[in-house]
Amino acid sequence: xxxxxxxxxxxxxxxxxxxxxxxxxxxxxxxxxxxxxxxxxxxxxxxxxxxxxxxxxxxxxxxxxxxxxxxxxxxxxxxxxxxxxxxxxxxxxxxxxxxxxxxxxxxxxxxxxxxxxxxxxxxxxxxxxxxxxxxxxxxxxxxxxxxxxxxxxxxxxxxxxxxxxxxxxxxxxxxxxxxxxxxxxxxxxxxxxxxxxxxxxxxxxxx
Length: 207
Prior knowledge:
Elements: H1 2-34, H2 40-60, H3 67-92, H4 100-114, H5 117-154, H6 181-191
């Protein structure tokens, strides 16, 4: 029951954050479509918010999350939504325009906005939260892989018994045969492996 309630809260928070992210990305792309001269902090934010959306969608699609994990993720998601809301409020006051002079003034306002401490702190916190959420997904996949390997290691797999080698060559052993023990030992080891293939390379007719 607790898992279900926590999961519902997380899904609702994710939906809110995805909507906020889309609005901010749209606003920033309005600027970048008219000029390349926008602050790097906003440019990087515009590039990373789609990554955030993808990560959130993956989290949202996970069928099994413990109540504690869901609550922890919800706290990060809610904080990210709070920081993005701050950025959105500031950006909403700056409307890009097709008019050259108004666009120039808007860009100046955007550059000034990027230097404000509150906005800088919000953008930095957004980046940190994105890293946390992405790391959560990465480690989750690693843990899943480890559990698979552990399960496989517990399986008792019996290799098929190799047939006894037989010889159909109708000749006796050559008394002048030069025994190259080291090479024959290597061949024996390689041929003893299941489904192994070994090839000798040399001049034809030298044995």
